[in-house]
Amino acid sequence: xxxxxxxxxxxxxxxxxxxxxxxxxxxxxxxxxxxxxxxxxxxxxxxxxxxxxxxxxxxxxxxxxxxxxxxxxxxxxxxxxxxxxxxxxxxxxxxxxxxxxxxxxxxxxxxxxxxxxxxxxxxxxxxxxxxxxxxxxxxxxxxxxxxxxxxxxxxxxxxxxxxxxxxxxxxxxxxxxxxxxxxxxxxxxxxxxxxxxxxxxxxxxxxxxxxxxxxxxxxxxxxxxxxxxxxxxxxxxxxxxxxxxxxxxxxxxxxxxxxxxxxxxxxxxxxxxxxxxxxxxxxxxxxxxxxxxxxxxxxxxxxxxxxxxxxxxxxxxxxxxxxxxxxxxxxxxxxxxxxxxxxxxxxxxxxxxxxxxxxxxxxxxxxxxxxxxxxxxxxxxxxxxxxxxxxxxxxxxxxxxxxxxxxxx
Length: 409
Known about the structure:
Elements (H helix, E strand, L loop, with lengths): L1 H49 L13 E6 L5 E6 L5 H14 L3 E5 L4 E9 L2 E8 L1 H74 L9 H28 L7 E4 H19 L2 E5 L5 E4 L1 H17 L6 E8 L3 E8 L6 H4 L11 H6 L6 H11 L3 E7 L3 E9 L12
Parallel strand pairs: 7-9
Antiparallel strand pairs: 1-2, 1-5, 3-4, 4-5, 6-8, 9-10, 10-12, 11-12
Helix pairs in contact: 1-3, 3-4, 4-9, 5-6, 6-9
């Protein structure tokens, strides 16, 4: 598919440029041909009227001769600026008289002329102007034009090939990511569906049993449905993020939000034997989406709780200056191996897939966190060392001012 797309891109460029060049050179050719014809007509009329070569024209470049004939069509005078025999001169005169036209082209084996015949008081004057020089000018013009067109096609092909490779590369990467994403999503959805199906089969095989006696199987079904619902919600979030729709933003107290998130997770940490600390100043106002920031912090804290053993510590911290606010979540957990650091924000990427499934994760949490940070035009970085812990640091641009925030103190 991508090979065909590349070929189509290159061919489109070559055909387009070739067409444009042909139009340009054809226009130049017609313009020059028209100009030379116009110039030849001026010279013919000038010589015919003045019966000599005008001083405005270079006698070395203008090759001509003229014949004066009386009413009996006999030659009564002539002037030559070209080496031509009397026999050829008389032959050209006879041909013009036979054709009975006032202007045109005439030639023999040795000469090519444009002629003009106009009446005079003594009869007529016939001026012959050599136009072989014009033809000599046309030929190199056509040859040069062909060479330029061919050279341009080669250059366009080379440039188009380079640009096509660069243009298609991100499309190819995006396509491959989408293919992997769809395959992973299908796999993640297939697992809970298989569990639900198998548990339903057990329940239906024991249709005479009470609901209470089959609670184990029904709980399994409920857990897998909850897991599937969360997975679908995460997929919908990522789909909306990819659509690049502008999310609503407003001013809110980021400090208060951190206290709320801290209170939501403190009991969970105590239950697991973890120490959760909060480090923030009050009245830090931020312009953004409060729900999204809360979701971002929840994802990072949830990850820290999952992968930090009993007795460990987790710190949620907020700092701010004139232009940025900086959020960080640090833990003393298992850490992330170096080879996974650059991939942890990829969708469905998990450092330990079996462990993640045991925790109910599908590998979308950090991908969603990255999307939220991107939506706020910020950056997210991670520093981690195996068996020592991990720290996520988020830097978000600050837009707040006291006059913009009605209830700031």
